[in-house]
Amino acid sequence: MFGAKARHLVRKTILPGNCSWCRWSSSSKAPEAAAKPDANAAKRQKLIQELAEPLESSGRPAIDPKETSVVLFPGQGTQYVGMAKDLLRFPGARRIFELANEVLQYDLLKICLEGPREKLNRTEYAQLAVMVSSLAALEQLREERPKAIENCVAAAGFSLGEITALVYAGAMPFDKALQLVQVRANAMQAACDQAPGAMAMTLYGPDTNLGEACAKALQWCVDSGVESPYCGVANYMYPHCKVVAGSVQALEFLEKHAKALKIRRMKRLAVSGAFHTPLMESAVEPFAKALKSIRLQDPIIRVYSNVDGKPYKNASHILRQLPKQIVKPVKWEQTLHELYERRQGVDFPRTFECGPGKGLLQVLEKVNAKAAQTSFNVTA
Question: Largest CB tally within 10 Å, which of 122, 311, 329, 332?
């Protein structure tokens, strides 16, 4: 049960197009105002349907794809001290942080603004900070480009950002999503403590066999007596760039033998575990249990799954698929191909990255330069 202050804030919050990422769970006695139907849901569904139909088979005037939008949300690792400072001029953004503080029972905004960096970078704070800052950034987008919200037809998020996208799409209540991310962060940190790992951005050429390189690193770990080792791709980023993750010793092997393995460059990520690999297996059960306690809704726009790069079909699909994301690679490159696939000559939608950093738009430029020409950053 959450306090009267939080419920009052929900009542006051201006929700973009009534597409409420601050939808409050029924178990928290949300006010009637927060449960209003989305005034633009029918319009968005019409846009989605007509964009999906072949132009020649539709009796209605074609929807101009340039008038539609896609929203992308970043994941953990994009956080920095001072994030969200420029968003505080928007009343809606301030209210979102107030809601989060009420649910979490501590001042998340203060951690975002003041750190210290060591605290903000801890998984238990970083994931929540990125999610709430990303949702707050949507308030700036709503104020400055309301049509981008009203005409949004799809959303996707990288890793943690996928949960942000589901909140934005109305599939998950804001307060329950905060609690779910808390469980996710704590479970992943516990998995890191249990099976220390590492991750590295890896650049390679067309003559590189990255799978074979990972297999050699894994075999070296087995031969060296490393307990339950792993080495494999954790994130598919863009052509000739992937994030490799696994046991610390496996990544050390790859770094040491990079030249022989035809790996051009490896850069370690500032994380303490091998996210999106089987080394995170112990985090799946607590996350799945927490997810089952949430009353999920069908997303009102397309939301793409990191597991296979395809859009979720309905709420039950989310319930089955989302826990797999913890131990499966993030297929971001595949997601972008799926998201922006269209017939030759058809314009691309406007793309907005909402949240700290500009990394997702930089990746989009490498995967689909034409789609990136109409992309914009709404930074936290």
Answer: 332
Burial of 268 (0-12, 13-18, 19+ CB in 10 A): exposed
Could you tell me the pTM of the whole model?
A: 0.87
Point out the catalytic residue in the list 69, 159, 272, 305. 159
For the residues of 17-38, what is the DSSP string, one character each? GG--TTPPPGGGT--GGGG---
Instruction: Please indicate whether residue 257 is annotated as part of the active site.
Output: no
Residues 6 or more apart whose CB falls under 8 angstroms from that of 72 comprise 155, 156, 157, 158, 161, 351, 352, 353, 354, 360, 361, 364
Q: What distance lies between CA 287 and its chain's CA centroid? A: 16
- Which residues contact residue 173 at a Cβ distance below 8 angstroms, ignoring those fewer than 6 apart? 23, 24, 25, 28, 30, 167, 294, 295
Q: How far is 339 from 210, CA to CA, in rounded Å?
A: 26
Identify which of 177, 138, 181, 184 has the alpha carbon closest to the alpha carbon of residue 28: 177
| Catalytic residue from among 20, 272, 276, 375 | 276
* Residue 194 token pair: 């249990």
pLDDT in tens, 264-320: 999 999 888 999 999 999 999 999 999 999 999 999 999 999 999 999 999 999 999
